[in-house]
Amino acid sequence: MMPAGVALGTIRGDTMRRARLDQIPWADFHKLPLQKKGPYFQQGDGRPYHVIIAQQFERDGLDQLCQLATRIRRIAKSKQGMEFLASLLSHKRAMLDFSQPSTRTFLSFYAACQILGLRVGEVRDPATSSEMKGESREDSVRTFSSYFDMIVMRTPQQGFAERMAWLLSNTERPIPIINAGSGKDQHPTQALLDIYTLQRSFEKVGGIEGKTVVFVGDLARGRTVRSLSYLLTKYANVTQYFVAPEPLQVGQDVLQQLDAARVNYHVSRDFEAVLPLADAIYMTRIQDEWDTEAAESKRIDISQYYFKAEHLKQIKMGTIIMHPLPRRQEIDVAVDHDPRAMYWRQMRNGMWIRTALIATIFGRDQEIASYYQINLK
Ligand code: CP
Fold first, then answer.
1. What value does the mean pLDDT take over residues 209-222?
2. Rounded to the nearest whole angstrom, what is the distance from the C-alpha of residue 332 to the centroid of ligand 1?
3. Sign of CA dihedral 57, 362, 32, 229
4. Global confidence as pTM
5. pLDDT of 93-109, one tens digit each?
6. Which residue in 38, 91, 268, 312 has the most C-beta neighbors within 10 A?
7. CA distance 218 to 283
């Protein structure tokens, strides 16, 4: 693995200049547009080192990750395969630092580490750490880097994972940071598992290209939508719909990135009118944990944006229904039994794509490819 923060990025006007986090002051790095930050998180050969934003992924990297996830999934079906996978990173340790609630992201990273043999430490409640004695979050994370080889981090603080990637890359013990959800802004590994789910679902019908993806719910504050909407720009002729009540409608920053990528999109309040057009419906819950003291979510009626059993008749036979979960009432449990309900498989895909991501960060992807060629091809 390349040293932390050392990347051969493509910077406009200087394709061979190395984009290194340890050679750019924080003040300069922080104000770069997202696309220009991407190369700073990559390794010299283009593999990710830190995983912070969706904007660091290009189409070939997404295809490679999906292919690797599928190979891992198939290798993991046998005891011999599981033993091979568990030998790959048995000399490494991972820290899961989750200062916001999580079930799926935490457990799927935990399971991914187990699959690859990494041993895992965790802090889920800052009340049990020396932050209660006044230690800063930055010092806490730097402490983790003394004991572990990778940090997976969920934080309510927008930009904190990015800040820590820069900070650790400027220490004598740089290690990869994976953003497992930061503030309202990014959830890049959720977007990767969503892409993997879409890719698997549409494998036999031309792939993700040309499909219509409909986002529904709290699009203003949903970080999964922001990251996935960007990754979908890497697939040709995808149309995106954003369906929400006005106060929860998607932000201008998302629409601007779609404009920049010349992507076809529509903003709508009419859930029932859009349903028949969808190839994938991406439901999200209201994110009231971000409410102010005014509890503004309580004044928004989102019941007309719920997917009910009767809506199954209005969607196409091949349409898939996704949800990053957890859900509340956005999807009727009666829908769970329909073969188009993809959210349970989507969640399991998270374990495979996160395993593929960790294996790639630590440069074990080629060994997995070789094992697959010899034993399963
Ligand atoms: N989708 C997701 O991030 O779920 P958790 O909050 O349970 O991790």
1. 96
2. 19
3. positive
4. 0.94
5. 999 999 999 999 999 99
6. 38
7. 9
